[in-house]
Amino acid sequence: MSDAAERNWRSATDETPLVRGGLILFAVAGIALLVAAPLLTVFAEAFAKGWFAALKSLGNPDALSAIRLTLTIAAFSVPLNAAFGIAAAWFITRFDFRGKAFLITLIDLPFSVSPVVAGLCIVLMFGANSAIGGWLVAQGYPIVFALPGIVLATMFVTFPFVARELIPVMIEQGCKEEEAALTLGASGWRVFVTVTLPKIRWALLYGVLLCNARAMGEFGAVAVVSGKIRGQTATMPITIEMLYNEYLSVAAFSLAGLLTALALVTLLVKTVLELRHADEIAATHRH
C-alpha cells in the first residue's frame, strides 16, 4: 500500500467521536423507549395504590390459579422440548439423509406461523368435533379447553428454541470425539452423557432458558385452545388481559409485573452463568 493510500485508509470501525456518540445515543434511546419505559410503566402501575394492594391482588384465587397453571405448563413443555430439541439436533448433525433441509424448515415453522393459527390447528385436530378429539372426550380425556391442549400449543410455539441453539454448536464441534469413544467400546448412551452433553450444555441451557421464558409468556396459541376459562385454563397472560379489560388495572399490572419479574430472573440467571463461566463457554465455542 502506498503512502497516500495509507493516509486515506481508515478502519471500518474508525468513526469520528460525533458519529460514535450519535450511534450510542440512538441505541440507548431505542432501548429506553422499547424496553426500559414499558418495564417501568408496568411496575409503576402495579404499585400505584401501594404494595399492599398489589400483593392482595396477587392473592386473588384467579391470580393464584393462573400462576399455578403457567408454572405447570412450563414444567411440562420445557423438559419435553429440551428432549425433542436434543434428539432433533443429534439427528440433523450426525446423519446425512434426504430431506434434511426440509426437516430444518419444519423446525423453524413455529417462527413463521402465527401462534393463533397453530392454536386453531390444534382445535381442529383435537376438538370435540374431530374424530380423535371426540373419542378422547368420550373417554374422559379432553385435549382442547384443558391442560393437555395448552401444553401442546406451548410446545409447538417453543419447540425451535432448544434445537436452534444446539444445531450450530454441534455442527461446529463435529463428531470426532464421539467416534473415538465408540471405537474404544463406549455405548451410545455413555457417549452422549460423557462426551456430547458436556460439550453442548451451555447451548442447551440457553435454549432451555429461552424456551422457558416464551412458554410462560405465550398468549396467542394458548388463548385459542384454552377457552379462557377463569380459574381453570386461564394462564397469566390471559388473566392479565381479562383483568385489564375489566378495568382492574392494579390487579392486571401486578400480575404483569410478576410475569416480568420471572422473565428478568431468567435473563439474570443466564447473565450470571455467562460471567462465572466465560472462559469455559469460550473454550466450548472454540472446539
TrEMBL record:
Cited SUPFAM superfamilies: MetI-like
Subcellular location: Cell membrane
One MF annotation (Gene Ontology) recorded for this entry: ABC-type sulfate transporter activity
Subunit field text: The complex is composed of two ATP-binding proteins (CysA), two transmembrane proteins (CysT and CysW) and a solute-binding protein (CysP).
Protein name: Sulfate transport system permease protein
Keywords noted in UniProt: Membrane, Sulfate transport, Transmembrane, Transmembrane helix, Transport
Membrane topology category: Multi-pass membrane protein
GO annotation, cellular component aspect: plasma membrane
Role, per record: Part of the ABC transporter complex CysAWTP (TC 3.A.1.6.1) involved in sulfate/thiosulfate import. Probably responsible for the translocation of the substrate across the membrane.
Keyword Membrane carried by entry: yes
Transmembrane residue ranges: 21-47, 67-91, 103-128, 140-163, 247-269
NCBIfam families linked to this entry: 3a0106s02 (TIGR00969), permease_CysW (TIGR02140)
Tagged with keyword Transmembrane: yes
Record domain ABC transmembrane type-1: where: 67-277
